[in-house]
Amino acid sequence: MELTDYLSPVQNAVLDDITESTARTLVNVADIYLQKFPDIHQADLIILGVEEYRNGNNMSVASAADAIRKQFYMLAQPKFNTKLADIGNIKAGNSLNDSLFALNAVVSHLLTLKKCIIILGGTQDMAYAQYTAYEGINRALNVFCCDSTIILKQNDHMPEWNNYLLKLIAHHPNYLFNITHAGSQQYFIEQESIDTFEKMNFDLYRLGGLRNAIQETAPLLRDSDMMVFSASCSKASDAPGSLAGNPNGLFGEEACQITRYAGMSNELTSIGFYDFAPEKDTDQRTAKLLSQSMWYFIDGYYQRKNHYPEPESDDYTRYLVTTQNGNYDIVFYKNNFTDRWWMEIPYPNEKSKHSGKYMVPCSYTDYELALKDEIPDRWLKAYHKLM
Q1: What confidence tens digit (pLDDT) does each residue in 247-284 have?
Q2: Torsions phi, psi for 310 (to 5 deg)
Q3: Most buried residue, 74, 75, 159, 342, by most Cβ within 10 Å?
Q4: Which helix or strand (DSSP H or E) is residue 321 part of?
Q5: Between 285-301 and 64-72, two packed helices, what is the crossing angle to 10 degrees?
Q6: pTM score, two decimals?
Q7: Are 119 and 107 in contact (CB under 8 A)?
């Protein structure tokens, strides 16, 4: 596959404002497609821009990737030996479907090369191409979305770019196992969408609950394969360039913390930053926030620990909790070095990625709930999906 058929190089003007740099400034660390295409085989992470804008009703969305690059490449390299390649931008096709096809083709190819992909620009509908790139690669895909709203209804008045979740769920063949939606604001969501989401045993975490326990996103992301990050999940004061411009939402440091957890997830192989319109941005605040969120994702990536609980491993302590009059035995595993927790679902299933059993990432809070004779919500939802 010739990737350059779908890509245009990063323009030199994007980097012109970087006048002061050192050997550890990211502009001098990354292998950037300016004239020569990068050696992607030597890279761990790939940056990929998208010039598509047609579903966002704001033409400046096409320049979102370059606006983020201007801020990102001024940042210092994390303390790790970062192997980063920037392969330029997906050219806007003659139609929106052409752009979706190109993004799907490029991401799919990079996934087969075992690369971790950072997608910049475009609206949420690009997440559909991000998702379909996993077809034939993952048997059971876990998707993590950070956004202010959920829309699972189809009608003539609904903008298609705002309805990508419905397309993911309806896609055939179906290889979707779970969606975790974080940061939702209930006054934007019709009750029918919430009811549908919960009937499918997907995970919904509203903005208030998320902000009160931001560390709980770490186990939610630990088993995720891809992440969709909408700029609209952040407060307009921190992200004035988001398409939605919501007064409520995540603070900048919370967004960075979540993307760092995403980077630390062993399973996560792509993240898309969408819904950013540079024309609306004030003093490049949104571009700076998204570039710093990228930085934290990369920092997290290089702190991945390939730990997975095995009953015979001395690295884990095993806890057995019997709940509800002995109807359920829940087995917990705690890593003795990282303090990461897991729950075992007693149902061998072909959807499991690990040796005929299904493990659900969890936290100490879930263990405490089980001790109080309450079945953790994460355990129940995973159990019902496997059944």
Answers
A1: 999 999 999 999 999 999 999 999 999 999 999 999 99
A2: -125, 135
A3: 342
A4: strand 316-323
A5: 70
A6: 0.93
A7: yes
